[in-house]
Amino acid sequence: MNTQIVFTLSDIGKFALWAAFLVILLYFIFILRRIYIALKDLTKVVEENRTQIDSILKSAPGITKNFEQISKDLSSDISAFNGTVSNLASITEKITSIKNLKEKFSKEDSKEKETNIE
Q1: CA-based angle 108:110:111, to the nearest 5?
Q2: pLDDT band (50, 70, 90) for residue 38
Q3: What is the three-state SS of the chain?
Q4: Could you tell me which residues come within 8 angstroms of residue 53 by beta carbon, excluding any fewer than 6 positions away?
Q5: Are 27 and 35 in contact (CB under 8 A)?
Q6: Best CA proximity match to 7, nearest among 16, 47, 48, 30
Q7: C-alpha span between 44 and 33 (Å, rounded)
């Protein structure tokens, strides 16, 4: 009576593939279980806070409208401020040019005085 068991490489490969498939299947089952638990907890939280969620959803359009109005007001204020800044820039430029002219004339006057003294 011959009691030898023979495994071929094909048999070992099939065994490895089935083992990998089983591991992946178990991992997938654990993931689905965690998703189920998370959804159950989420449903519980939503049911417990239903009144607060409903009140927030009712007030959301008013909040959005107020935000849009504030954005428009801020935009107009910023555009007015930009005009003021450009006016200040032009005034500063004029003052600087006047100062440069004054310095230029004062240098010329001092040169004339030096030439007259000699």
Answers
A1: 65
A2: very high
A3: CCCCCCCCHHHHHHHHHHHHHHHHHHHHHHHHHHHHHHHHHHHHHHHHCHHHHHHHHHHHHHHHHHHHHHHHHHHHHHHHHHHHHHHHHHHHHHHHHHHHHHHHHHHHHHHHHHHHHC
A4: 46
A5: no
A6: 16
A7: 17
pTM to 2 decimal places: 0.45
Question: pLDDT digits over 53-80, tens only?
Answer: 999 889 888 888 888 888 888 888 887 7
Pair of tokens at residue 81: 């401020």
Instruction: Report in angstroms the alpha-carbon separations of 100 from 92, 95, 109.
Output: 12, 9, 14
Cα–Cα distance, 52 to 58 (Å, whole number): 10
Residue pointed to by tokens 């989420």? 42
Distance CA 55, CA 12 (A): 63
